[in-house]
Amino acid sequence: MRPATFRVNCFENTVGALAALSQLELDMGSISIAGLDLLRHEVLFEQRDFRGVNWTALMEALEKANSPRITAKALGDRKNNGAFFREFLSGRLGSGRPPDSGEGAHQAERLRVFIVVTGSWLFERGSDLTPLQLEGDCRCRIYHLRFRLNNNDLFDELAKVMKPLRPKTFNLLTPRDLRKAIAEIIEDLGNL
Q1: What's the pLDDT band for 88 if we cut at 50, 70, 90?
Q2: Whole-angstrom Cα distance, residue 8 to residue 192?
Q3: Which contacts qualify for 38-43: CB closer than 8 Å, 24 or more apart?
Q4: Who is most buried in 68, 80, 86, 156, counting CB within 10 A?
Q5: What is the DSSP letter of 136?
Q6: What are phi and psi of 60, to 5 degrees?
Q7: Is-contact 85 70, C-beta < 8 A?
Q8: How many CB atoms lie under 10 A from the CB of residue 112?
Q9: Which DSSP string do the residues of 158-171 spell out, in sequence order?
Q10: Which strand (E) or helix (H) includes residue 7?
Q11: Is the backbone of residue 96 left (phi > 0), alpha (psi -120 to 50) or beta?
Q12: How many Å apart are CA 49 and CA 15, to the nearest integer?
């Protein structure tokens, strides 16, 4: 498969997954989305209220992520792509930690759910792939929707960074795989 075809498939898979996930309805809680560009160390898209997705801004962010343009600084810093991902997740896990107040006690019971949508990812040789360090119980559940190119595509180093979070990983080849994964996530969360 040519690189251009691979980029198009990743783009389409990501859009399809986000369109499906945007249909989730919660009895309690909220849904937000963040789009990371690991090559450029940027958060290209972020929306706190995911119920009304800003599709125009999201598509612009995806187009930017698929652009072959990259700065010399980003190229020189590519061994820190794993650290960027780890620090982003760590920040998200740390944000929302309840203060030591009456309200904090109520929020401490809340479970945060992260759904990470990616393709398979290999980092630059010699990259820092130190797993995320957790302090105490993160009160979180992580689901990793990983789009694969084919049955032999088993490479993925993002999983190494997320390993301490014990993510439930779904290897997706077809739209049906995505539907099954989302159904399993919904069932799992319904059993909490």
Answers
A1: very high
A2: 37
A3: 38/81, 38/84, 38/85, 38/121, 39/70, 39/74, 39/78, 39/81, 40/70, 40/71, 40/74, 41/74, 41/77, 41/80, 41/81, 41/84, 43/88
A4: 86
A5: S
A6: -65, -40
A7: no
A8: 14
A9: HHHHHGGG--EEEE
A10: helix 3-21
A11: left
A12: 17
- What torsion, rounded to 10 degrees, do the Cα atoms 178, 179, 185, 186 define? 160
Q: What is the pLDDT of residue 180?
A: 96
- Burial tier of 176 (Cβ tally within 10 Å: 0-12, 13-18, 19+): exposed
CA dist., res. 137 & res. 36, Å (int): 25
Residue that has been written with the tokens 């490479």 in this structure: 155
- Cβ contacts of 29 within 8 Å, gap of 6 or more: 110
- DSSP codes, 57-111: HHHHHHHHHH-S---HHHHHTGGGHHHHHHHHHHHHHHTTPPPSSHHHHHHTTPP
Cβ within 8 Å of residue 112, ≥6 positions away: 93, 96, 138, 139, 140, 141
User: Is pLDDT at 123 greater than 90 in this prediction?
Assistant: no
Give yes or no for residue 127 having a pLDDT over 60: yes
Q: Count other C-beta atoms under 10 Å from residue 2's C-beta.
A: 7
Query: End-to-end alpha-carbon separation of the chain, Å?
Result: 41
Q: Tokens representing 22?
A: 């945007």
